[in-house]
Design brief:
Helix content: 40-55%
Structural class: alpha+beta
Strand content: 15-25%
Number of strands: 20
Distance between the termini: 42 Å
Strand order of the largest sheet: 2-1-3-9-4-7
Number of helices: 21
Shape: elongated
Radius of gyration: 32 Å
Number of domains: 4
Length: 563
């Protein structure tokens, strides 16, 4: 029996997309047609001087472009809560009634255009969330009575054991109960290198099993995985409206009934009390309705926001959400993710240390052996050797020691490249050098020939060329910088030192980053967040201003942070 999926974020996102009416799906065509009609109306009335046909076209503009606005106006009447849709509808038809058809059409056309621009932004949010959820597989292979059964992710229960083969995405949050492997969870935690996971290790849905065969016991239902929580956090944070937009809503709530009451009074009081002409004062009441319509206020807010967003986008900066745009000028603290934001998000060899042969020979032998591996560390070493134009030597009897390193025969020598756990006897000078490099936030691997450690290779995710300069420029403007990262403390501390940041927080999960942003907002008032990964999405959405790295960033971080 299939589990109830009514509460599933993935299903709800796609259901919203599927439930769109034909009108909504072709909204851009409606806008284009309204624009053409509006232009035609002006041409007919003011160029050909055919007022009747001009008015007829302007009426078509009001009815066509204002279809949803007019419907919302009737709904507000039924609910007895008159809103800005009612006022715009009355103003449009009122203008038409007093012979200013072009004014009425302009009011309805511009207001509907503003609504369309806001809907476009909302659609991008839905798309980004759907894209995020696609990172988590929709099905899982579950161990059942010694066999394998493919289940929809809705049907996976806490305690079920999922089978994950090399190269597959992990479908559940859980604990490894069998096997070991390197798991790439950079998008979830921000760690710059894959982490080794053995029995008892915790893994997250959406991360990638790079090498080994894993069996994982689910510890959370599908709706409570890290990715699902990220979706909820993004949705909650993005539901906040800008101060100006909130003011417009409050303003319309009280202003609309007052204007309507005032217009009714203008139409009835003079004829009933003073015996004045009803026709004259009814006409004046319509004029009052038209001139009282807060067109500039109701239209300018979304249109000006859209204009700013478009201008920023043309300069390579995506902006979404009026609240965040308005807050930009008040930001006093910039918070940076590390991996892929301040750094390149790719390991590079920084040091080659030799204890017996030459450094070039250490690199040559290591790279020759590592050509047989797909691990990011191996790829970085091979790239360094190729950059040095070293000739790589064929490998025999290659063997991968999962989670620790590789071994094989190169040029007749038995080589081992990997973590220090692979070596029984390591000289103190080698250990001291390794600790020195690790204290600098570098990943180290050792090269052993036979039983002797002959060299060290250190790797690091390099800082982007412009990072330190950007931090310095922020300092010059009186803005402080903070780093929050899912990576380990030593690596984060090293990067912070390299770019000139004094405050940093390491080993943070997405909810931890969100909490840290909340603390900083309480302390400093207005905070900007810069990030690129899925794990940054909630923090980007929560910050007063979120800035996503559009080239390297994940889709969801770009959508959540482009504000």
């Amino acid at each position: 029996m299939k589990a109830d999926s009514s509460g599933c974020e993935l299903c709800s996102v796609h259901a919203a997309e599927d439930s769109e009416s034909v009108w909504e799906k072709h909204r851009v065509l409606v806008v284009a047609a309204s624009t053409a009609l509006f232009g035609t109306g002006f041409a007919v009335e003011y160029l050909t001087k055919n007022v009747l046909y001009g008015h007829a076209i302007f009426l078509a503009v009001i009815l066509f472009s204002g279809r949803e606005i007019i419907g919302a106006a009737f709904s507000s009447v039924i609910r007895r809560r008159l809103d800005v849709n009612f006022l715009m509808t009355v103003a449009a038809f009122g203008a038409f009634a007093i012979g200013q058809a072009d004014e009425g059409a302009a009011v309805m056309y511009l207001f509907s255009l503003a609504e369309y621009l806001e809907d476009v932004a909302s659609g991008k949010v839905r798309s980004s969330i759907a894209g995020l959820l696609k990172l988590s597989p929709s099905s899982a292979t579950i161990r059942v009575d010694g066999g394998e059964v493919e289940k929809h992710i809705h049907d996976v229960r806490v305690g079920d054991v999922a089978i994950v083969r090399p190269g597959q995405r992990i479908p559940v949050d859980g604990v490894v109960v069998s096997g070991s492997s390197s798991v790439n969870q950079a998008l979830i935690t921000g760690e710059s290198v894959p982490v080794e996971r053995e029995v008892g290790g915790e893994v997250f849905a959406g991360s990638i099993n790079e090498e080994g065969f894993l069996e994982i016991r689910a510890t959370s239902p599908p709706t409570e995985t890290v990715i699902s929580k990220v979706v909820r956090l993004v949705q909650q944070a993005q539901s906040e409206r800008s101060p100006t937009e909130s003011f417009v809503e409050r303003f319309a709530k009280y202003y609309t009934p007052l204007v309507v009451a005032g217009s009714i009074s203008v139409a009835l009081v003079p004829p009933l009390v003073l015996g004045a002409s009803f026709t004259t004062w009814f006409y004046r009441a319509l004029i009052l309705l038209v001139v009282s319509c807060p067109c500039a206020l109701t239209i300018s807010t979304p249109v000006s926001m859209a204009s700013a967003i478009t201008s920023a986008a043309s300069n390579g900066v995506l902006v979404k959400g009026g609240k965040y745009l308005e807050s930009l000028g008040r930001v006093k603290t910039f918070v940076f993710d590390k991996t892929g934001t301040l750094t390149r998000g790719k390991l590079e060899v920084t040091d080659v240390v030799s204890f017996s042969p030459s450094p070039k020979e250490v690199l040559q032998l290591s790279a020759s052996l590592e050509t047989m591996s797909e691990h990011p560390v191996a790829k970085a070493i091979v790239e360094k050797a190729k950059a040095e134009r070293l000739i790589l030597i064929p490998v025999a009897e290659f063997n991968s020691i999962r989670g620790k390193g590789v071994q094989g025969i190169v040029d007749g020598k038995a080589l081992v490249v990997g973590k220090h756990e692979l070596f029984q006897k390591i000289p103190d000078k080698v250990l001291d050098k390794a600790r020195e490099l690790q204290a600098q936030g570098k990943t180290t691997v050792m090269l052993g020939v036979g039983d002797e450690v002959v060299g060290l290779i250190a790797l690091k995710d390099r800082v982007k060329d412009a990072a330190a300069g950007a931090i310095e420029e922020l300092k010059d403007r009186g803005i402080q910088s903070v780093i929050i990262s899912g990576d380990n403390d030593a690596t984060t501390a090293s990067i912070a030192k390299d770019v000139g940041v004094n405050h940093y927080h390491a080993e943070l999960l997405p909810e931890d980053k969100l909490e840290e942003i909340s603390h900083l907002k309480e302390k400093y008032g207005s905070v900007a967040m810069v990030g690129d990964g899925v794990n940054d999405a909630p923090a980007l959405a929560k910050a007063n201003v979120g800035i996503a790295m559009g080239v390297l960033g994940s889709d969801v971080s770009i959508e959540a942070g482009t504000h």
